[in-house]
């Protein structure tokens, strides 16, 4: 079946007259995979539908939030009900306490948590807090990791920054990026060297505990433990950016899955059930420096607003009350992994499938993909062809080789079988 997408083409032309690049977030523009982005009208369960009425099996799920599939009834109904009583007060509400208590009951090492409206805000605030708490200026991030678009993080970042191969982002001043130190992912010696060369000056190390913004790249054995001990020794704040892994890899996220304690954790995506929500939290010893308790200022007009809170609360409560969802979603991803492996084996092209839990990606590489350089030297032109081959058959992968695939628990065995069969057909040609 090859789809006609005339309506999307028309909408894309029109969008570009009023929105930069026709999209409100660059990764949606298909710039790296080529072609015209598809305009969606609705979604239900594992599927979304474009303006021409074509159905797609969704492996983006809004880049993570739709872990239970689109238009999950309890979330939709909760939003409808809450909206009738006003959408925002700018005053505290009991629901925010319930949301904070729910997060604390699921996530390890979170004594206090502050709600914000995006993953970017969460990471930006966590970094400011770590700097305010330690009195130090520098921090370490990893090449290919993406922590949102706050200036300090746009140095060798992943996701759209890597997709568009933006080396230095105009507008990010040297004054800001001078304090951003970078190291390759999965290389603990590189971190040790930076720590030794900047003794007593590093406030934080921020990491995606399972990287998802250069495709999926799990930490190699012992790496996260080594990071933890360097931070303990040097008084550096270890920030787990769990915007992607939080409430996805386990109820307790990567801290639970990898059994590593972070000092601060940032959340987004799943935590909002599809509405704009982010959060950062951690030990009281650190979080108590946040205004109005302390002097590290951080604020937000719509932080903790009722709609976002009821959507996120309903989503997290569902995940907490039925932990088998995590087993199911992991099993579905393992099934997909096995099927893709069989399909790709028949192809005469090298490939690597990286997976941890429900985070998975295919790299057309002839060697292990353990850091950004490995991901960047894979045959990403082939990925782009593969992306379109599947899209044409109604299967929507993330439109970049530098993204992990997002699995929803609404995916059926048949959806996965169709994905595998279409993969096998493409590689047979
Ligand atoms: P937002 O500000 O986009 O809500 O979150 C930023 C962010 C922070 N940390 C991690 C680990 C993230 O993955 C993200 C956002 N992820 C990208 C996709 N890889 C969002 C998609 C987009 O930019 O439109």
Short key terms for the protein model shown above:
429 residues, binds ligand KE4, Aspartate Aminotransferase, domain 1, alpha/beta, seven-stranded mixed sheet, Aspartate Aminotransferase, domain 2, four-stranded mixed sheet
In words, what does this structure look like?
It is a single chain. The protein is of the alpha/beta class. It folds into two domains: 6-71 and 323-400 and 412-428, Aspartate Aminotransferase, domain 1 (Alpha-Beta Complex); 73-321, Aspartate Aminotransferase, domain 2 (3-Layer(aba) Sandwich), CATH 3.40.640.10. Helix content is 38%, strand content 14%. It has 15 helices and 14 strands. It has helices spanning 6-15, 73-83, 94-106, 119-134, 159-163, 174-177, 188-197, 223-234, 253-258, 284-287, 306-321, 324-345, 372-376, 380-391, 413-428, and strands at 40-44, 47-50, 55-58, 112-116, 138-142, 180-183, 202-207, 237-241, 264-267, 278-282, 352-356, 359-363, 395-396, 405-406. The strands form three sheets. The chain has a seven-stranded mixed beta sheet with strand order 4-10-9-8-7-5-6, with helices on both faces. A four-stranded mixed beta sheet has the order 1-2-3-13. Helix 2 (73-83) runs antiparallel to helix 11 (306-321) and helix 7 (188-197) packs parallel to helix 8. It is globular and about 60 Å long. 51% of the residues are buried. Ligand KE4 binds at residues 25, 27, 63, 118-120, 123, 146-148, 159-160, 208, 212-213, 241, 243-244, 268, 278, 403.
């Amino acid at each position: 079946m090859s789809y006609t997408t005339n309506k999307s083409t028309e909408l894309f032309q029109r969008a570009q007259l009023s929105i930069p690049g026709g999209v409100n977030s660059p990764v949606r523009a298909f710039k790296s995979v080529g072609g015209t982005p598809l305009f969606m009208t609705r979604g239900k369960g594992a599927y979304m539908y474009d303006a021409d009425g074509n159905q797609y099996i969704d492996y983006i799920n809004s880049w993570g939030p739709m872990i239970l599939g689109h238009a999950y009834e309890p979330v939709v109904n909760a939003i409808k009900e809450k909206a009738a009583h006003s959408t925002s007060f700018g005053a505290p509400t009991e629901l925010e306490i319930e949301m904070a208590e729910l997060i604390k009951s699921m996530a390890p090492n979170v004594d206090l948590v502050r709600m914000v409206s995006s993953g970017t805000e969460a990471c930006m605030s966590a970094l400011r807090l770590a700097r305010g708490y330690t009195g130090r200026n520098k921090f370490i991030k990893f090449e290919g990791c993406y922590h949102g678009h706050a200036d300090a993080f746009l140095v060798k970042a992943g996701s759209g920054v890597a997709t568009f191969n933006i080396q230095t982002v105009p507008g990010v001043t040297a004054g800001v990026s001078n304090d951003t130190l970078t190291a390759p992912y999965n290389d603990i010696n590189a971190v040790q060297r930076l720590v030794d060369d900047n003794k007593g000056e590093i406030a934080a190390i921020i990491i995606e505990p399972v990287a998802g913004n250069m495709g999926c790249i799990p930490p190699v054995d012992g790496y996260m433990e080594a990071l933890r001990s360097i931070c303990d020794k040097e008084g550096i704040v270890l920030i787990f950016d769990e915007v992607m892994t939080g409430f996805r890899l386990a109820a307790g996220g990567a801290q639970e899955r990898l059994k590593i304690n972070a000092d601060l954790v940032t959340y987004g995506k799943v935590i909002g059930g599809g509405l704009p929500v982010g959060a950062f939290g951690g030990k009281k010893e650190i979080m108590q420096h946040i205004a109005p308790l302390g002097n590290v200022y951080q604020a937000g007009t719509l932080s903790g607003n009722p709609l976002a809170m009821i959507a996120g609360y309903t989503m997290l409560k569902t995940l907490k009350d039925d932990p088998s969802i995590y087993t199911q979603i992991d099993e579905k991803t393992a099934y997909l992994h096995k099927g893709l492996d069989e399909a790709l084996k028949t192809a005469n092209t090298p490939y690597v499938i990286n997976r941890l839990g429900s985070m998975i990606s295919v790299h057309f590489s002839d060697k292990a993909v353990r850091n950004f350089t490995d991901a960047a030297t894979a045959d990403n032109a082939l990925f782009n062809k593969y992306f379109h081959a599947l899209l044409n058959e109604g299967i929507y992968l993330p439109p970049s080789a530098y993204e992990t695939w997002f699995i929803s628990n609404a995916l059926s065995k048949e959806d996965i079988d169709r994905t595998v069969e279409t993969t096998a057909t493409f590689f047979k040609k």
